[in-house]
Amino acid sequence: MNWALSIFYYIVTVLVVLVYGLLLYAFIAKTMARVQGRIGIPIYQPFLDIIQTYGRRTAVTHGYMFDLGPVFRLTGGLGTLAFIPVIYGSEIFGNFHFAGDLLLVMYFIFFGQLGMALGAGESGHPYAPMGIARGLAQMTAFEVPFALAVIAVFMQYETASITEIVAAQQGSIYNWTLFTNPFAVLAAMFAFLGMSMYPPFDLVTAPNEIPIGPPTEYHSAYLSLLQTNRAIFAGAKLVLFMNLFFGGATNLPIMVLKTWAIYMIPVLIGVAFPRFKVENSIRFFLGVPTLVGIIAVLYMQYWGTV
User: Fold this and answer.
1) Helix H segments across 122-219?
2) pLDDT surpasses 50 at 306
3) pLDDT (tens digit, 9 = 90+) per residue, 59-85?
């Protein structure tokens, strides 16, 4: 009975995060359009897109791995969300948290991207290897400062449990990792720019440069799975960063406020800057962000011995 109730609560959480992620995407798309002098899409457009694509079927396939690519991608998003407590102390939005769940979440973050790379590689399209090489190279680069930031968090709180990390930040805003270890937060936010894939780090699909990508090769129901994952995965990453660095959330309005503020950082940078070249992006993440991550680890090593 407990497992059945937990699964039901998780389904409710997925639906809430899905709706929130779609609304975020619509709001950001409309914001960018306004900045560029356009009207933009209506707020309900992402919901219509998913309904439309779910209702379509196709006879085009390039093999089993091509079919499994969007499934792996969605599994990565669902798996990431499954082990992150969305609302601290909530029975409904607590999900399947346990000791060491942060390590599992990190695996799920990159599982979907690697599975998607395998699926796109079997499409046979000449642009697929280019997108895969760009995506994996950038992912490897921004993973370095993110991993260093997570190591600093491990050292600070002496646990790999996301729930315990959030619990340690309760009581005062000055208990947040943002104030107790700002170097780790800065390194992680640098990495978050790459994870979000807004300009200047939108190298995989490269709008206006490579006009062929997942929306072309993966259409109909394939595209609906990718759109669903985009909303869920975005919400899961925002909640993860909120829990690790910004004190978590004890209710739904606080969660929305904090995650929206975090999400606006890559959006504003994306509006202001053009896209990097591949070598520029890799050089960026392996430069200052990695240095800041190393400083965060050294800072916690010194702080822990004082």
Assistant:
1) 128-157, 162-168, 177-180, 182-196, 214-217
2) no
3) 676 778 888 888 888 888 888 888 888
The span from the CA of 66 to the CA of 130, in Å, is 17
d(CA 293, CA 231): 28
**CA angle (13 as vertex; 23, 172 as ends), nearest 5:** 85
Q: Are the CB atoms for 64 and 303 separated by under 8 Å?
A: no
Query: Is the separation of the CB atoms in 194 and 139 below 8 Å?
Result: yes
As given in the structure block, the two tokens for residue 28 are 């950001």
Are 102 and 156 a contacting pair, CB within 8 Å? no
- Encoding tokens for residue 298? 């050294």
Rg (CA), the chain: 19
Overall residue count recorded for the chain in this entry: 306
Indicate the Cα dihedral angle 195, 198, 204, 206, nearest 10°: -170
Structure tokens at 195: 């994870």
Residue indicated by tokens 């599975």:
115
pLDDT digits 0-9 by tens, 187-241: 999 999 988 888 888 877 665 555 455 556 777 788 888 888 888 988 899 999 9
Separation of alpha carbons 231 and 177, rounded Å: 26
Which residue, 196, 286, 271, 190, is CA-closest to 238? 196
> Which tokens is 185 given?
């937060």
Distance CA 296, CA 298 (A): 6
Residue keyed to tokens 């947040």: 176
